[in-house]
């Protein structure tokens, strides 16, 4: 049986299923129970789930579930209602939350972190980071346009000409590509930067201009896996000076740089913000991890002394929950389908499968993921570590972060950039777009969710 719960705490409008995914689950032979009201934040009423074959139930039904499909990591209170051995698929946000991971191990659930899905051709349809970051990039432009309170495209009228807004995107991952494409569709003049030289062609294919100090060091600034290398202090200084001068002339700046398991790199200092024109807007998509912008505040829109608005919305993909849930539900179903025995119609987890190995956090009462398993979080120590998770009264309103993943999968990059350029006629190269980078810091980055 598959259970789809409401997300605890009322902070998450997305849901782990759609009417379509429920229909597919029923087709696989599962009984599906959806907690009453689980889809309301995503505009999916209970009747739609029921028509697709689900039974509308209550939270206590989780105790009978073999599989639980969630958006966020289950709280300790939720775990108490799960049966041992249940498979829980969600975005787990484990970095910095090791005690919560240990609590899942203690509860005996087999937990899968969807954000750890390897970026390979086979797993493209399961890639929650790409599906959610794509929408976050779109929404970042919409939020910026709302705060900017002026027209983005150039308009020529008898009364005069309205100039096009200038938009600068820092970090050309999935979110960055979609931000570029969306801003271009709205008629803005767009520039973008990234320390990976291979993304230059992608930026240009979307009709934007690429900005970087393109010296010999820049040309070698990418690992074989597609990640950015640590740049020299000299290069960092040159790049910082170039971007600072450019930002001062922009109307809208969107930053997307995140590093898995680490604070977000600082891309824009306070003095650079102070150099911007009154009425300018900065959208910081990394605000949950400390932010790329000095002065950004999580969950708030801050107006600086010189009239610049710094937008720090949390869970940006959740701001387009109806669309985000449809994509996320498809990601979950595609992964779960690989763990179903087609003959018996039963859950049959192949622990040797590369997708399972990459995403499994806990199993059999232990923390099994290599990034988190260790002497303090496995075996008997789980019982000592797990009580620390009791302080978690509700899920943090902070989107997940992924573990570092290989970035060399060319089909995944093409799919992401092609989606972003659907109305620009753009064509991209085969470079992976799943991670953004800290431009002025020159440090490896990870895509925002």
Helix content: 25-40%
The amount of beta strand, in percent, is 15-25%
What is the makeup of the main sheet?
A: 8 strands, mixed
Tertiary shape: globular
Care to count the β-strands? 21
Q: Regions with pLDDT < 50 over 5+ consecutive residues?
A: 376-414, 421-449
Q: State the end-to-end distance.
A: 29 Å
Provide the structure class.
alpha/beta
What's the rounded overall pLDDT mean? Answer: 85
Strand order of the largest sheet: 3-2-1-4-5-6-19-20
How does this structure look, described?
With 449 residues, the chain is of the alpha/beta class. Helices cover 29% and strands 16% of the residues. An 8-stranded mixed sheet has the order 3-2-1-4-5-6-19-20, sandwiched between helices. A 7-stranded mixed sheet has the order 11-10-9-12-14-16-15. A hairpin with a 2-residue loop joins strand 7 and strand 8. The longest helix is centred in the N-terminal third of the chain and has 21 residues, at 128-148. Residues 376-414 and 421-449 have low confidence and may be disordered.
Summarize the structure in short.
The protein has helices at 19-27, 46-51, 76-79, 98-107, 128-148, 174-185, 200-205, 216-219, 233-247, 270-274, 321-337, 354-359, 381-385, 410-420, and strands at residues 2-4, 32-35, 55-57, 67-72, 87-91, 110-113, 155-157, 160-162, 166-170, 189-193, 209-210, 252-255, 257-258, 281-284, 301-303, 309-311, 340-341, 346-347, 360-363, 366-367, 446-447. By secondary structure, the protein is α/β, with parallel strands linked by helices.
């Amino acid at each position: 049986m598959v259970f789809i719960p409401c997300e605890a705490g009322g902070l998450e409008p997305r849901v782990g299923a759609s009417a379509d995914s429920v229909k597919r689950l029923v087709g696989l032979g599962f009984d599906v129970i959806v907690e009453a009201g689980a889809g309301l934040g995503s505009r999916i009423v209970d009747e739609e789930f029921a028509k697709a074959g689900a039974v509308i139930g209550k939270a206590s039904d989780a105790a009978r579930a073999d599989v639980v499909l969630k958006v966020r990591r289950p709280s300790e209170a939720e775990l108490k209602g799960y049966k041992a051995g249940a498979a829980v698929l969600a975005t787990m946000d484990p970095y910095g939350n090791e005690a919560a991971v240990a609590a899942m191990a203690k509860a005996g659930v087999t937990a899968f972190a969807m954000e750890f899905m390897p970026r390979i051709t086979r797993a493209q349809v399961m890639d929650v980071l790409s599906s959610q970051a794509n929408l976050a990039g779109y929404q970042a432009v919409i939020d910026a346009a709302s705060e900017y309170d002026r027209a983005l495209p150039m308009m020529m009228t008898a009364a005069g000409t309205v100039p096009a807004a200038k938009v600068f995107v820092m970090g050309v991952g999935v979110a960055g590509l979609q931000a570029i494409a969306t801003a271009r569709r709205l008629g803005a003049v767009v520039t973008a930067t990234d320390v990976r030289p291979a993304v230059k062609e992608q930026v240009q294919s979307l009709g934007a201009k690429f900005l970087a100090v393109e010296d010999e060091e820049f040309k070698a600034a990418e690992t074989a896996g597609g990640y950015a290398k640590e740049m020299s202090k000299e290069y960092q200084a040159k790049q910082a000076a170039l971007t600072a001068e450019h930002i001062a002339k922009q109307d809208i700046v969107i930053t997307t740089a995140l590093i898995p398991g680490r604070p977000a790199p600082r891309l824009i200092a306070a003095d650079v913000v102070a150099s911007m024109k009154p009425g300018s807007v900065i959208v910081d998509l990394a605000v949950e991890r400390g932010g790329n912008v000095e002065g950004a505040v999580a969950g708030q829109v801050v107006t600086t002394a010189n009239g610049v608005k710094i937008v720090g919305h949390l869970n940006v993909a959740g701001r387009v929950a109806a669309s985000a849930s449809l994509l996320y539900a498809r990601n979950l179903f595609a992964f779960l389908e690989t763990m179903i025995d087609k003959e018996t119609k039963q859950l049959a987890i192949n622990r040797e499968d590369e997708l399972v190995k990459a995403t499994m956090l806990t199993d059999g009462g232990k923390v099994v993921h290599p990034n988190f398993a260790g002497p303090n979080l496995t075996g008997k120590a789980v019982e000592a570590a797990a009580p620390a998770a009791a302080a978690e009264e509700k899920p943090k309103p902070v989107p997940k972060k992924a573990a570092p993943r290989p970035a060399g999968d060319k089909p995944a990059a093409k799919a992401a950039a092609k989606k972003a350029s659907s109305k620009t006629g753009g064509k991209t190269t085969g470079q992976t777009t799943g991670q953004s980078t800290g431009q002025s810091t020159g440090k490896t980055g990870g895509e925002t969710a």
